[in-house]
Design a protein that fits this description.
- This protein is an alpha+beta fold and 729 residues long.
- The protein has 3 domains: 2-318, Beta-galactosidase, Chain A, domain 5, CATH 2.70.98.60; 323-634, Aldolase class I (TIM Barrel, Alpha-Beta Barrel); 640-728, Immunoglobulin-like (Sandwich), CATH 2.60.40.
- It contains 14 helices and 39 strands.
- Strands 6, 7, 8, 9, 11, 12, 14, 15, 19 and 20 form a 10-stranded antiparallel β-sheet that branches.
- The structure holds alpha-D-galactopyranose.
- Alpha-D-galactopyranose binds at residues 336, 366-367, 376, 411, 478, 480, 526, 528-529, 545, 548.
Length: 729
């Protein structure tokens, strides 16, 4: 990895191991142009790619048609309302109602290491494993600078990019748009890849053609959302799982976002990613800085898989901070699908005793333990233990669970308030709402305005007091509705547009406080399943609940889309009971175990009530988890076949970094009559090594396994699965 500045020609070149990213300072005005991003190249001066020797030339040459220049030049940080009609990176109202800006190069720094972004999650690196380029741009008329930051990491082909805007003028400015990354490139034969979904079917992969004009995904729900994901991929027409060109952009942020491509009249693309401009208007007082969240950019010439493995490595090594990052997580049993709200101490202890016999390591008490919460209509905000349900209190329960030999974890939904709660009766104004308008309920609840200090302090103290009161080693932090009715009593009338971003900052501050006071806590984020599964949250919690849909077959597509970007170690996945509570499907217990193995692995069922044969299978699954979890957590992930595409079977593989071991999980979703075995070609093995198939004893060479493949015999029935384990001889 290296970052160079060619002073003579004004060219910046950022090299990761296999990719290059080139920018150049052009013309007397010092426009910063984007020249290249892709597979590694040797030359530094590739300014010809900016095409400024073609009509309409540079502004100094073609002042007459300056607009034509500005509307086609590949800007690294495009300005607004001065001639470039494509989307701008930043929009700033100057207080007189004007909204125009134009940023040019001022200075830069190249240094070892990477700086944190204040108040925001971001990738981290030290002086020996990362390097950063910071470029200061300026708009002299506004008195504003923009600092663009690019960081790279040893051995990983990604660039972490962000932007910060500083108001050096003597008056307030209002920021109404800030894209953390903007990238102009030629439009080749790319398709747009995004992840879409809904509750219980998050992150399904979706491809579309890129037409003229703008194509985008985004969220204005105050969280990254079930519906669209802060990710955008450009996939070349020839690209597949392990070959061809792919660009990926992933946003390290948990709130409103916009991810967009704009194809213009010259068939060039402007890719942008940043905070969604809707409802965004942020005051920058004199001297203030606005730091925009980070975008991870990745280029792969080894298909989607190359992108995936770079992101997995980055997140495991440079984003997740939890001490659990490199540790096997305790196998937990969660009582949500087991009991919903209908439980008490005895019931939980029964579950714990049975779980202990099967080798399960932690009991998680989900929603319903506080206030008068016997259904989802009340008590959010009243975080005191319901002693009718839990006689003897929380400490008694936790001690008993510990005595049985299990760790204890608990559920919270700290950001919420039920209209039916003591908290709401005392502080109705703490709910986010607009004066004179009845706020919209969702799941019969409102969102607390945690941007106000007294509210976030209350929330924090509630959670912390519970954690201080007993030996609680895990927290599931839930968030079960999006934001609306946006207004805050803590903000002035000119600043209401700051609420959504300040809300996200407040969530981050709360979680930062929590993991600082309880550094050994295992935190799992959650939002009605997977509505806040994003890189931002990974900075605080090493795992996130992936979806409320625990059906093994539904999970195939959900987990395929999730694992496209996120390491398996982060994906909350549990074995649940059948018929599945979301879709009513019956699947073999074994398949449910194999599918949950591609995640954190745990149980979400009433172990005292499930069929005896299932219960008897648990110790074997627990042993399977212990046997494979190091590999799953640390290994390289390969997607071999996708049920989404072939409609019959699904297959993924994990290979250890030293290529000595591989695990393949094959799910036969539908059996096919009168058909033959499926042939799958493995990936990532050492072509020269021999591998023994633990099941069959067969020994085959890595090149055979990868090029000729193996055959998986048809199984009897639908939804069956098979785990294949290979070890190098
Ligand atoms: C959300 C979560 C579930 C469960 C319920 C409890 O839906 O995703 O796992 O915790 O809330 O109300």
């Amino acid at each position: 990895m290296d970052i160079l500045f060619d002073e003579k020609n004004g060219v910046f070149k950022i090299d990761t191991e296999k990719t290059s990213y080139v920018m150049a300072i052009m013309d007397t005005e010092k426009l910063l142009g984007h020249a290249y991003y892709g597979k590694k190249i040797s030359d530094v001066d590739v300014r010809y790619l900016l095409r400024t020797s073609e009509n309409p030339f540079l502004p100094s040459v073609n002042g007459r048609d300056r607009g034509s220049v500005l509307d086609s030049f590949p800007f690294e940080f495009p300005g607004c309302n001065v001639g470039d009609y494509r989307e701008s990176a930043v929009e700033l109202e100057d207080g007189n109602g004007c909204n125009a800006n134009f940023f040019t190069y001022r200075s830069h720094r190249i240094f070892a290491g990477k700086k944190p972004i204040k108040g925001l999650p971001a990738t981290f690196g030290n002086e020996s494993d990362s390097m950063t380029l910071e470029i200061d741009l300026e708009d002299k008329v506004l008195g504003v600078t923009a600092t663009l930051s690019y960081s790279i990491f040893q051995g990983i082909d990604v660039i972490a990019r962000s932007a910060a805007v500083t108001n050096h003028s003597k008056r307030s400015l209002f920021l109404t748009r800030i894209m953390s990354a903007s990238l102009d490139m030629d439009c080749e034969d790319y398709r747009l890849l995004t992840l879409h979904g809904s509750w219980a079917r998050e992150r399904h992969m979706d491809y579309r053609e890129i037409g003229y004009g703008k194509s985008s995904v985004g969220s204005v729900r105050g969280e990254s959302s079930h519906q669209e994901h802060p990710f955008l991929g450009l996939v070349s027409g020839r690209a597949g799982q392990e070959q061809g060109e792919v660009y990926g952009f992933h946003f390290v942020y948990s709130g409103n976002f916009l991810a967009q491509v704009e194809k213009n009249q010259f068939d060039s693309l402007r890719v942008q990613m940043g905070i969604h401009p809707k409802n965004f208007r942020f005051e920058l007082k004199p001297g203030e800085v606005f730091a925009a969240p980070e975008v991870i950019m990745v280029y792969s010439d080894r298909g989607l898989g190359g992108m995936t493995r770079n992101l997995h490595d980055l997140y495991r090594e440079h984003l997740i901070r939890s001490p659990y990052r490199d540790r096997k997580r305790p196998i937990l049993i969660n009582n949500w699908e087991a009991t919903y709200f209908d439980f008490n101490t005895e019931k939980l202890l029964d579950i714990a005793r049975e779980a202990k016999k099967c080798g399960i390591e932690m009991l998680v008490m989900d929603d319903g333990w506080f206030g008068r919460r016997n259904d989802d209509n009340s008590s959010l905000g009243d975080w005191t233990v319901n002693v009718e349900k839990l006689p003897g209190g929380l400490k008694y329960l936790v001690d008993e669970v510990n005595r049985i030999g299990l760790k204890f974890g608990i559920w919270f939904e700290p950001e919420m308030i039920s209209p039916e709660s003591d908290l709401y009766r005392a502080h109705p104004d703490w709910a986010i709402s607009i004066d004179g308008r009845t706020p919209c309920r969702m799941r019969n609840q409102y969102v607390l305005d945690i941007t106000r200090k007294e509210v976030s302090d209350y929330v924090y103290e509630c959670v912390a007091a519970v954690l201080r009161s007993a030996n609680i080693e895990y927290v599931k932090w839930d968030m079960n509705r999006p934001l609306c009715d946006l207004a805050s009593k803590g903000l002035g009338s000119a600043n209401q547009g700051e609420l959504s971003h300040r809300y996200v900052l407040a969530v981050y501050a709360l979680q930062e406080r929590l993991i600082s006071e309880f550094p050994n806590l295992l935190l799992e984020n959650c939002s009605g399943g997977g509505a806040r599964f994003d890189p931002g949250m990974l900075y605080y919690s090493p795992q996130i609940w992936c979806s409320d849909d625990t059906d093994a077959i539904e999970r195939l597509s959900i987990q395929e889309g999730t694992a496209l970007l996120y390491p398996l170690s982060t994906i909350g996945a549990h074995v649940s009971d059948c018929p599945n509570h979301t879709v009513g499907r019956n699947t073999p217990f074994e398949t449910r175990g194999h599918v949950a193995l591609a995640g954190t692995f745990g149980y979400e069922l009433d172990i005292t009530k499930i069929p005896e044969a299932d219960r008897q299978a648990i110790p074997g699954q627990v042993a399977m988890y212990h046997k494979y979890n190091d590999l799953v957590r640390r290994g390289d992930y390969y997607r071999i076949a996708s049920y989404r595409e072939n409609h019959f079977f699904d297959c993924y593989e994990v290979v250890s970094k030293d290529q000595k071991e591989a695990m393949i999980v094959f799910v036969q979703v539908l059996n096919r009559p009168n058909f033959r075995s499926r042939r799958i070609r493995l990936c990532g093995l050492d072509p020269k090594r021999n591998y023994r198939n633990e099941d069959t004893g067969e020994i085959l060479c890595g090149d055979t396994l990868m090029n000729a493949g193996i055959t998986v015999p048809a199984m009897w029935g639908d939804f069956c699965s098979k785990l294949i384990h290979l070890s190098a001889e």
